[in-house]
Write a sequence for this structure.
């Protein structure tokens, strides 16, 4: 019975990672804030999963903190990097379009 409930918390963990990525990539929240909030949510999901699976309290606590923080920071960092690259590419396209307009106006 507990195995099915444990899988629910893995799904919540995955949804949390997706929401961290989309939030930072969309610019709705900064990477450090999203990583901090996501770390708490991810750690909680992994902790409950580990308890349901039958791990000990200390093992569940250590694994939840390490996995929760690692994955949340990785998702936020990756999203921030790709957001920065997208903004750079948009600037180049805008400059090129402005240069074309100036060239055509002459």
């Amino acid at each position: 019975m507990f195995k099915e409930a444990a899988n629910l918390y893995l799904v919540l963990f995955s949804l949390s990672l997706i929401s961290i990525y989309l939030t930072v990539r969309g610019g709705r929240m900064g990477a450090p804030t999203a990583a901090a909030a996501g770390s708490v949510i991810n750690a909680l999901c992994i902790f409950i999963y580990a308890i349901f699976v039958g791990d000990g309290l200390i093992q569940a606590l250590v694994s939840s903190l390490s996995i929760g923080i690692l994955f949340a920071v990785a998702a936020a960092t990756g999203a921030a990097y790709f957001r920065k690259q997208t903004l750079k590419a948009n600037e180049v396209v805008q400059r090129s379009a402005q240069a074309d307009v100036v060239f055509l106006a002459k």
